[in-house]
Specification:
binds adenosine-5'-triphosphate, six-stranded mixed sheet, four-stranded antiparallel sheet, Rossmann fold, 37% helix, 9 helices
């Protein structure tokens, strides 16, 4: 099988908020590659920089220094207009709080990215998505008439409709019970396996990370390890170490394994 292609990557990525004494270095030299057609999780203790990394990779926020490449495009070299187009056409985003427009129906919310880009929906693709999210009988409801799980499935459909190169999800199951959360994770898994999408998800939940292909661990704004074919139990174990402040130990161990060719 050919090597996986890189969908988006960061090198020497630094993000600081504020200046002087009050400056916070949220990302402290991140090198990471996100591969096409994979479901990648970003995990780490609270404040470790997960959301900041996701926002920088998704071109929602600019770095203080370092480089982000989206496909072959260096984000720093894109004009504001091109960046806006990239966000609109090549990125899908799913937020913890759903972020649907309350006055629009589910169908109108799902089609909004296409409407904003002045594009017509591909009816076959739209039907496939609606089938996958299981909302055919809810399309004319407004968000307030839908459960949290249904609202998040509308948000997933909205992220999928323009067939973006990468879908970024920030704690997509954070406001959902385990059944509704499981449905959303199943949907994201299906987006990768059946629709060939690339999904990157920030999560606190080891069980959620168990649905992914790869977990990247952050601590204090740095990458301190990663895990392929993660299991919930394996992720939980690693997270316990990170939350106990053993991030650097994990990093050294990971580098040791790399050197040993493991
Ligand atoms: N807009 C901002 N202004 C100032 N500091 C910020 C801002 N956004 C994030 N930070 C700081 O940057 C660091 C990383 O924040 P970030 O939200 O990326 O972490 P996180 O791992 O996603 O956290 P959580 O799991 O709690 O959501 C934290 O110390 C945070 O306080």
């Amino acid at each position: 099988m050919s090597d996986p292609q890189v969908a988006v990557s960061a090198s020497a990525l630094v993000k600081e908020y504020g200046t002087g004494e009050s400056a916070t270095r949220a990302l402290d030299g991140i090198d990471v590659q996100i591969f096409q057609r994979q479901f990648t999780a970003i995990m780490g203790p609270s404040g470790s920089g997960k959301s900041t990394l996701l926002h920088c990779l998704a071109a929602l926020d600019g770095p203080t220094s370092g480089e982000v490449r989206f496909g072959t495009d260096d984000l720093a070299r894109l004009s504001d207009n091109k960046l806006t187009r990239l966000r609109r056409e090549r990125v899908g985003f799913i937020f913890q709080g759903f972020n649907l427009v309350p006055t629009l129906t589910a169908r109108e919310n799902i089609l909004l990215p296409l409407a904003m880009a002045g594009r017509k929906p591909d009816t076959h693709w739209f039907d496939q998505i609606i089938d996958a999210v299981g909302l055919a009988d809810r399309l004319h409801h407004r968000p307030a008439q839908l459960s949290g799980g249904q609202q998040q499935r509308v948000a997933c459909a909205r992220a999928l409709v323009a067939r973006p190169e990468v879908i970024f999800a920030d704690e997509p199951t954070g406001n959902l019970d385990s059944v509704a959360g499981g449905q959303v994770l199943g949907l994201l898994r299906q987006a990768v396996d059946d629709f060939g999408q690339t999904v990157v998800m920030v999560t606190h939940d080891a069980a959620a990370a168990g649905h992914t292909d790869r977990v990247v661990f952050l601590s204090d704004g740095r990458i301190v390890g990663e895990m392929g074919h993660p299991t919930a139990a394996g992720v939980l174990e690693r997270m316990k170490d990170l939350e106990a402040g053993f991030g650097q130990t994990v990093l050294v161990a990971a580098q040791g394994s790399e050197r040993a060719g493991i």
